[in-house]
């Protein structure tokens, strides 16, 4: 039985563990939490655009995208160090412009 199983069982126990095992368990929890948070922000069915792609589609400069992000008009996400825009958000702006 591993530590996660023991914790999930809800049993009232006292554990004596090695510091290396505790560190390994902590790293496991952090990775699991990061993965969960990342998955909640990244929707697999959603398409994302780079700054360059978004600026080309919207016929704007990169500085305009930055300004729009700053005022909340077109928010960007930072995923894995990359700044991305949801394609659905870009499409919504195009819809507004066409109406």
TrEMBL record:
List the molecular function annotations (GO) for this entry: DNA binding
Keywords for the protein's UniProt record, in alphabetical order? DNA-binding
Q: Per the record, a Pfam family?
A: HTH_17
Q: Which Gene3D superfamilies match?
A: 1.10.1660.10
Q: Which segments constitute the Helix-turn-helix domain?
A: 48-96
What InterPro entries is this protein classified in? DNA-bd_dom_put_sf, HTH_17
User: What's the name of the protein?
Assistant: DNA-binding protein
Q: What is the lineage of its organism?
A: Bacteria, Pseudomonadati, Bacteroidota, Bacteroidia, Bacteroidales
